[in-house]
Design brief:
Elements (H helix, E strand, L loop, with lengths): L9 H10 L9 H14 L3 E7 L3 E8 L5 E3 L5 H4 L6 E3 L12 H4 L6 E8 L5 E9 L7 H24 L10 H18 L3 E8 L2 H8 L1 H18 L5 E6 L2 E7 L3 H22 L7 E7 L8 H21 L2
Antiparallel strand pairs: 1-2, 1-6, 2-3, 4-5, 5-6, 7-9, 7-10, 8-9
Helix pairs in contact: 2-5, 7-8, 8-9
Length: 322
């Protein structure tokens, strides 16, 4: 049996998959409809919308199997995401890569497999739409085109999920996306007993930018602020635009002191940008840093409220110095 190799950009691929906040969610009709269509169209007993995580393939929609996931090491889909087109195995028992695979030798007795990679909006291949038969079969050109069409429909549904959690102006997570991902991260921190800190940020003098330079320039300031966040914060940090001129970042496995250092680096990055841009205004911000404590922050909303309060006090103290 051949264990599927890892894509060269596996780290980015996994981050993309997790950013969709779709893993381990409940069944949805929009995906189940596609697997039912594929089952009828191809006359196969098994159809999956399979998402390939670090160590498993998890089925967002599944027809014909009682399990919701299998190990990535034995997955056919782990091989399928390595290519750009349809991955076809006419008869797995005669293929040296799969002939001794547990999914072939034991129930559910895979023989035929055809999987088309599913791409997230950024092009990363996060899983497949695949059809499986317990008997060997051929797969013609028209079959390939039909499977590709159904996969395109599945990709549109993935895009709709991401758009629902993405801020369309700044292209970073919105409040909904942040809440979904951050809750999982805090649960992990609590289980593993690792620290986390939240940074609540609000742009200074944002209304005067809109009033003096116009709302288009105000939008530009928000976009530039988000871009600087992308450049300064780490790949493991979760950051978002909550709405208006409010932004937030959750830093896991990071103490409050370390978070303060990262925020200072971000502040210096903005200062350098202001010096070079000379746009007639400076982009600056007030912030509050809160160290996560499970006994005090029973909910993520409570953590955000503490950060908001600390940010407000910071902003108030800055105004008093003017």
């Amino acid at each position: 049996m051949k264990i599927p190799a890892l894509p060269q950009d596996e780290h980015v691929r996994i981050e993309t998959l997790r950013s969709l906040s779709i893993l381990d969610t409940l069944p949805e009709e929009r995906f189940d409809r596609l697997t039912r269509m594929a089952k009828r169209l191809f006359g196969v007993p098994i159809v999956l919308v399979s998402l390939v995580d670090e160590n498993r393939q998890w089925f967002k929609s599944c027809v014909g199997l009682v399990t919701s996931e299998t190990s990535r090491d034995i997955s056919f889909c782990g091989h399928a995401i390595l290519g750009d087109g349809v991955f076809i195995i006419p008869n797995a028992i005669e293929d040296e890569r799969f002939s001794d695979n547990p999914l072939v030798l034991n129930d559910p007795y895979f023989r035929f497999y055809a999987g088309y990679p599913l791409r997230a909006p950024n092009g990363q291949k996060v899983g497949t739409l695949c059809i499986i038969d317990r008997e060997p079969r051929n797969f013609g050109e028209e079959d390939v085109e039909a499977l590709e069409d159904l996969a395109s429909m599945a990709e549109l549904e993935l895009e709709a999920i991401q758009l629902a959690t993405l801020d369309v102006l700044t292209n970073i997570s919105n409040r909904r996306g942040f809440m979904m991902i951050a809750k999982h991260s805090l649960h992990l921190c609590e289980r593993q007993k690792i620290p986390a800190s939240l940074v609540f940020m609000d742009l200074d003098s944002f209304k005067p930018i809109n009033d003096s330079f116009g709302h288009a320039e105000g939008d530009r300031a928000l976009i530039l602020f988000a871009e600087q966040m992308k450049h300064t914060f780490r790949d493991s940090d979760i950051f978002a635009r909550l709405g208006g001129d409010e932004f937030v970042a959750l830093l896991t496995n990071t103490s409050k002191k370390q978070t303060e250092s990262i925020v200072e680096k971000f502040r210096q990055s903005l200062k350098k940008y202001n010096q070079n841009a000379c746009r007639g205004y400076d982009i600056s911000f007030s912030y509050g840093i809160v160290e996560y404590r499970s006994d005090m922050h029973v909910t993520l909303e409570a953590l955000l409220a503490d950060g908001d309060s600390m940010m407000y006090q910071f902003k108030k103290s800055k105004k008093s110095l003017l």
